[in-house]
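SAMPLE LOG
Freezer: B-3
Tube label: C17
Construct: single chain, 65 aa
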Amino acid sequence: MKAKTFDCVEMKHRGAEKVREQTKDMTPEQELVFWRERSCILRQRQEDAKGGHSALEKGKSQRSS
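STRUCTURE (predicted):
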């Protein structure tokens, strides 16, 4: 049996701890803003990875046509 070189569960736990540290002193309203911003960043990264353009850029190009 091969030695395990990558532990997905461990990676998930480290990520969760990082988020806990970033949000531990936030009010519910601040945390909501945090998650909205992070979701926006994630969507942009996903679009970039696909080689596409964000919805905002698509809207701009449609208006200028």
